[in-house]
Design the sequence.
């Protein structure tokens, strides 16, 4: 294939992460026609909507074959775990995203722990259970704080950070009863302490290219209070991270990809490591088999790379560190959510001011839970509605700009955290 040949691309997903991926893919000289399934209200000016079920391997592969798609990019975890990448790859069509076997790094916490143990990488000590009574007995025996996790995909809800035995027992019962197959195995983990840091990496199964670090804000309310969410805001890079810690995080991700390869599993796609920076060094909290949301919305705008070339290289085994460079700028993104998220919230509220926010230099508003009505007006359509992202030469400037841009946007029930990035400003000693 000549280097300049354009290829048509199908992107699966509908979140702010996918909007950020689409913008970066569209900027590549290699990008031909772009398709999204299902997409959101912000993606229509760059891509057409493909009428396929993103979790059906046959549907996705059939569409890709019929339309002559040259690259399928998988955003969320569910299609990965369902084996969409395997079926598309079996058709001889390049795909960005790991096989179902490799995606078990996210799809089964027990699988991930076993790989980590074989690879010798630091993570919280754990026990796994398939019997609720044995699990409850173990928790009583611990008699203190612990973390209870459903083994499978639970849409971000299957983790209970329990300070007391009583909270842990409630969590154990919830995991065994509320999560179906995802909760048939339940893990009890040692509680780790320290700031969190995410590291996304691209890999073709052999070469691992770390992307920039980022820090998410998982809790719904200011001061890290309230329930866990998909993520309420994020920044990149993480200024409190020490060079030695970053080196260890990169080494851990390389060890894991190498271990999988030794086990006969070639991991191709994005490996997302969630780390806790403990006083004994970084320890793995979890791995995800995809880009983070909202982490992607601050990592990709800072990345100097041809994303189409990078993704094709992950698929054909030619990934090279030299393909990725970084802007020195800082990025901060604030999530505008619907009142009530992550619990019940209303949809269909008209949104105004997005163009005013986008008009600010260095500001880009990624759509997440939005849709368009028949006249093309943007309406809310989810819990996390918009990711208001700013990039600037200093952290403070990026943060101020993101919040100024948030003020320009209105919709009924608009809620957001006001303290995104405060920890980065306070510094390590004051956390
Ligand atoms: P996970 O989906 O496994 O990353 O868990 C979600 C969140 O729960 C993490 O971002 C942490 O804030 C918290 N968490 C998970 N595991 C632990 C642990 N072993 N110790 C302390 N906090 C944890
Ligand atoms: N921001 C957390 C995640 O993508 O899982």
Sequence:
């Amino acid at each position: 294939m000549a280097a300049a040949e354009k290829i048509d691309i199908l992107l699966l997903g509908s979140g702010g992460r996918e909007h950020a991926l689409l913008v970066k893919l569209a900027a590549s000289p290699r990008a031909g026609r772009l398709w999204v399934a299902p997409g959101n209200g912000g993606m229509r000016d760059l891509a057409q909507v493909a009428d396929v079920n993103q979790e059906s391997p046959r549907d996705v592969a059939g569409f890709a074959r019929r339309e002559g798609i040259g690259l399928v990019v998988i955003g969320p975890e569910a299609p990965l775990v369902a084996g969409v990448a395997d079926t598309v790859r079996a058709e001889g069509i390049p795909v960005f995203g790991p096989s179902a076997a490799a995606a078990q790094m996210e799809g089964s916490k027990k699988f991930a722990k076993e790989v980590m143990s074989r690879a010798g990488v630091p993570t919280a000590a754990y026990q796994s259970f398939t019997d609720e009574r044995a699990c409850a007995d173990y928790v009583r025996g611990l008699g203190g704080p612990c973390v209870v996790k459903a083994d499978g995909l639970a849409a971000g809800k299957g983790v209970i950070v329990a300070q007391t035995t009583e909270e842990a027992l409630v969590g154990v019962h919830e995991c065994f009863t509320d999560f179906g197959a995802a909760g048939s195995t339940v893990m009890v983990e040692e509680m780790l302490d320290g700031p969190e840091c995410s590291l996304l990496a691209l890999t073709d199964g052999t070469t691992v290219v770390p992307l920039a670090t980022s820090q998410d804000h998982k809790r719904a309310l200011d001061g890290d209070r309230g329930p866990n969410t998909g993520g309420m805001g994020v920044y990149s890079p993480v200024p409190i991270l020490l060079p030695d810690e970053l080196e260890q995080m990169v080494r851990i991700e390389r060890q894991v990809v190498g271990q999988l390869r030794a086990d006969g599993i070639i991991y191709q796609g994005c490996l997302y490591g969630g780390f806790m920076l403990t006083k004994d060094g970084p320890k793995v909290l979890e791995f995800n088999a995809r880009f983070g949301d909202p982490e992607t919305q601050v990592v990709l705008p800072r990345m100097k790379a041809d994303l189409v070339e990078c993704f094709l290289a992950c698929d054909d085994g030619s990934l090279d560190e030299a393909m990725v460079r970084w802007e020195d700028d800082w990025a901060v993104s604030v999530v505008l959510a619907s009142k009530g998220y992550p619990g019940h919230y209303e949809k269909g509220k008209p949104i105004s001011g997005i163009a005013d926010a986008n008009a600010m230099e260095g500001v880009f508003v990624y759509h997440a839970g939005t849709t368009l009505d028949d006249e093309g007006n943007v309406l809310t359509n989810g819990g996390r509605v918009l990711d208001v992202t700013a990039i600037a030469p200093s952290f403070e400037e990026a943060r101020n700009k993101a919040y100024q841009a948030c003020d320009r946007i209105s919709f009924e029930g608009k809620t957001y955290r006001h303290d995104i990035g405060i920890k980065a400003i306070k510094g390590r000693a004051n956390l």
Q: What stands out?
A: The two ends are 51 Å apart (CA to CA).
